[in-house]
């Protein structure tokens, strides 16, 4: 059964779409913030994801939750943003400066969870962010990220191991 808000939004109701945005923007922004190289870019990327969702609402398959649809769009936008970030020499310089500053901190200081997450590859960070931080199922994360279920499970396993090592948490094994 199709969500009445989605049905109305597909019929062109901007009020219905505004309600969908209001219902899901906090979760989408939180997800994107965990992926962005620069947290200031997260709100812009989330907004772009919602604009794209509005234009692509006809592509939302029946039975797929709206939040899953928008998070998938946001993930692809974050990937594109990361590519732009990596191509920019000025941004690369900023990134390395930030890394040097964090290394200069006292030896006894542990990395914050955010800094540890930032050190993970983007696909592992996205899987961890969805399944651990946002409580999505592995299947939902696979749908959002467009990856096979086994890949999601692998990313979570490897990402958790790396986070535990960075944060000094003993391995459960």
Relevant terms:
173 residues, globular
Molecular structure report:
The chain has 173 residues and is mainly α. Helices cover 72% and strands 0% of the residues. The chain has nine helices and no strands. The chain has helices at residues 4-10, 14-35, 42-55, 66-87, 89-103, 113-118, 122-133, 138-145, 149-167.
SS summary, helix count: 9
| Helix share bin | over 70%
Fraction in beta strands = under 5%
What pattern of helices and strands is seen along the backbone?
HHHHHHHHH
SSE blueprint:
Elements: H1 4-10, H2 14-35, H3 42-55, H4 66-87, H5 89-103, H6 113-118, H7 122-133, H8 138-145, H9 149-167
Brief account:
With 173 residues, the chain is mainly alpha-helical. It is 72% helix and 0% strand.
